[in-house]
Amino acid sequence: LGTVLVTGGCGFVGSFITEAFAAESSCARVVVASRNPNKFKIPWVEYRPCDFMNLNQVEDLLNEVKPRVIVHTVSPGAFALPSQHYRVSYQGTKNLLEMAKHHPSVRAFVWTGSVNCVHLNPTTNHRPIDETEAIVNDWNSPSSAYSRAKGATETFVLGSNTDATTVDFSENADWHGKLVTTSIRITGLYGPRDKMTIGQMMSLTNTLAARIQVGPNQLVHSWCYVESAAQAHLNAAKALLDGAHLHPDMRVDGEAFFIADPTPMKFWDFDRKLLQATGDRFSNRPIEQQRLIVIPFGVMMTIAWISEWLYWIFTFGSKRPSMTADHFEFMSRGCWFSIEKAKKRLGYVPVCDTEEGIKRSVEWFQNNIGW
Predict the structure, then answer these.
(1) Residue 311 and residue 40: Cα distance in Å, rounded?
(2) Which end of the chain is more exposed for a tag (fewer CB within 10 A), N or C?
(3) Please, what's the b/e burial string for 206-230 (b: 16 or more CB within 10 A of its CB; e: otherwise)?
(4) Number of neighbouring beta carbons within 10 Å of residue 89
(5) What is the pLDDT of residues 34-49, one digit of tens each?
(6) If 0-12 CB within 10 Å is exposed, 13-18 middle and 19+ buried, where does residue 316 land?
(7) Yes or no: domain 2-193+222-263+336-352 corresponds to CATH 3.40.50.410
């Protein structure tokens, strides 16, 4: 793999990806580039500040680091403004890709995608959907700004791929103007260091909010333990450059892969198993004694929609609330994706199942945050 550049490697998933590459013997050097490279730092990894919207800084970074592999994890987050999704997710990735493709050292580009890039259909929630069935969002899709940006960006990333059957994988080959690319579609991400899902759910321990359930808890969701996601990125990078994945049934370049835990779990089952692990008194009661407060999706989506409009009015469109209608829309549709393609082509093996992942996540927060 040579030198690997991880963009956004100080974030939640980025830090685990960095650790996975740093532990890989074929990596000669791992460099992390981030606007503020201060969190989750690993002693033997190099860190560089970089604003990926600044083309001069990106050019200087590539010339200095000379990476063979780029793992691009930078994202403004699901609750960012639509303008940020376009600017950071799409335009920023496009700029980096175009510069990487014409840089003589860069050969492989692994993009951290999301299942939000595809249309979620609750009528197919009774079985896992594979990559051939999924409909990728674009700028005109009737979905959230985050989902549209993820879909459009993935399309550009995979469209920038150079057919691996046409390139020379030998050590001294000329790769100028060539680049093999792939997209890792992560499902519901969670794990240690995850303040978004695990941290927020744990904060409900022994509160009235632990009794609230939104929707009927009928649809399953694919979840993904963060260490499994990190390993998938490493496997993808190795597969892109080994020159052995050239058969149509084994191609990695120009392909997208769903990455998830072995089996799905209903959203509120996940929530309650997590709260049980924290010692929440209510969630550890027998189910018939829990007396759940069930709020219909429609009610919560209406409240969230009103909240978004109030935020837009009083902040002049500069902020979004942490609770949005998009969030409840995603929950109401469910998502169950097949990981068979990743198993076959990437050699992907989940680190653990969801129950064990929840246990590890809660233990990390209890030991490091003091919950």
Answers:
(1) 32
(2) C
(3) eeeebeebbbebebbbbbbbbbbbb
(4) 24
(5) 988 888 888 889 999 9
(6) exposed
(7) no
What integer is the mean pLDDT of 169-190? Answer: 94
User: Would you kindly state where each structural domain of the chain is located, as residue ranges?
Assistant: 2-193+222-263+336-352
Side-chain-side CA neighbours of residue 347 (13 Å): 10
pTM of the complete model: 0.93
Show the tokens assigned to 277.
């692990």
SS3 annotation, 166-180: HCCCCCCCCCCCCCE
Q: What is the 3-state secondary structure (H, E, C) of the chain?
A: CEEEEEECCCCHHHHHHHHHHHCCCCEEEEEEEECCCCCCCCCCCEEEECCCCCHHHHHHHHHHHCCCEEEECCCCCCCCCHHHHHHHHHHHHHHHHHHHHCCCCCCEEEEEEEHHHECCCHHHCCCCECCCCCCECCCCCCCCHHHHHHHHHHHHHHHCCCCHHHCCCCCCCCCCCCCEEEEEEECEEECCCCHHHHHHHHCCCCCHHHHEEECCCCCEECEEEHHHHHHHHHHHHHHHHCCCCCCCCCCCCCEEEEECCCCCEEHHHHHHHHHHHHCCCCCCCCHHHCCCEEECHHHHHHHHHHHHHHHHHHCCCCCCCCCCHHHHHHHHHCECECCHHHHHHHCCCCCCCHHHHHHHHHHHHHHHCCC
Q: Look at residue 300 and tell me whether its pLDDT is greater than 80.
A: yes
Considering only CA atoms, which of 168, 191, 310, 300 is closest in space to residue 241? 168
- The token pair at 302 is 């209406």
Distance CA 188, CA 258 (A): 11
